[in-house]
Sequence to fold (128 residues):
Amino acid sequence: MIKLGILDFDTSHCVEFTKRLNHIGDDKEQFVEGAKIVIGCAGESKLSPERIKGFTEAMTKFGVPLVDKPADMIGKVVGMLIEAVDGTVHYERAKPFLEAGIPCFVDKPYACSVDDAKKMAELAAKKK
Fold:
């Protein structure tokens, strides 16, 4: 099983990905085999801070252990899902994981600048 972490709970994507990966709910045809969200971090949000509380409650209800700092997930996962609704923070959110050699799925928008997009791609390639 591939152990995944999930960062930033200001979008319903954190809940929806967790439901599918951790086989939660009745929508069995949507379940994904082979990976599981094993840890999460609510993070912070400039665009939708009011959404974090409700999605954090859902993640807790799903039994996902939570940490206060994103860096606390390093060493506990082999892959990350970066879910911030604000694409301007994706590079800074993914960077510590990429530097640690942890592959990252970065949700849309991947980045809000060509510079950030290039930096993420270059760092991922450098760390393989």
About this structure: The mean pLDDT is 97. The chain has four helices and four strands. The two ends are 21 Å apart (CA to CA).
